[in-house]
């Protein structure tokens, strides 16, 4: 009897997976280094947004699970972002430009036929970073960390538009080395972001 139940469960699971709707597409948009949408709006109104703005571009897949009405959406995204860091021992603030690969794995649900919400972890690998500070000869950063994405959007036909907030789970500690070879300062390179994006579904 137990074997029969197991076989039936496996059969149901396999048929549901076979019936799962799979979509894929491309995406791109603007990233803004900020702790909240309100802070972002204040910076834009006050003209302080230029030094914190970047962009992203990537690919996404969406696996719709018909039995539960939810979907899973993994993404592969290249992000270039600007930030500002405080070099404590140098008593100055420097611009920090960095590039990374983001891999969000989101679980979400559509409602009202066009709207959706999703949430999930975002895995980040830091590719490169550069400080706008002449006294820095080297920048050492841990490459991998994990954050969280939460967002909502609408999808009209093949086109979608959404807004997300990304929150860091852990810090990426970076070490700044001066021209003398002495540690100048440490700072966190995993920033919170407000993300606006457009997508196209094939």
Description of the molecule:
By secondary structure, the chain is mostly beta strands. It has two helices and eleven strands; from the N terminus they run H-E-H-E-E-E-E-E-E-E-E-E-E. The protein has helices spanning 2-19, 37-45; strands at residues 21-33, 53-65, 70-87, 92-111, 115-131, 136-141, 144-156, 159-168, 173-178, 183-188, 193-201. The chain has an eight-stranded antiparallel β-barrel with strand order 1-2-3-4-5-7-8-11. Strands 6-9-10 form a three-stranded antiparallel β-sheet, with no helix packed on it. A hairpin with a 4-residue loop joins strand 2 and strand 3. It is elongated. The N and C termini lie far apart (45 Å). The model is unreliable at 4-8 (pLDDT under 50).
Indicate the topology.
Blueprint: H1 2-19, E1 21-33, H2 37-45, E2 53-65, E3 70-87, E4 92-111, E5 115-131, E6 136-141, E7 144-156, E8 159-168, E9 173-178, E10 183-188, E11 193-201
Antiparallel strand pairs: 1-2, 1-11, 2-3, 3-4, 4-5, 5-7, 6-9, 7-8, 8-11, 9-10
Which class do the helix and strand fractions yield?
mainly beta
Across the major sheet, the strand order is: 1-2-3-4-5-7-8-11
Instruction: Write down the Rg.
Output: 21 Å
Number of helices: 2
Instruction: Characterize the largest beta sheet: strand count, sense, and whether it forms a barrel.
Output: 8 strands, antiparallel, barrel
Topology as a string of helices (H) and strands (E): HEHEEEEEEEEEE
* Stretches with pLDDT under 50, minimum 5 residues: 4-8
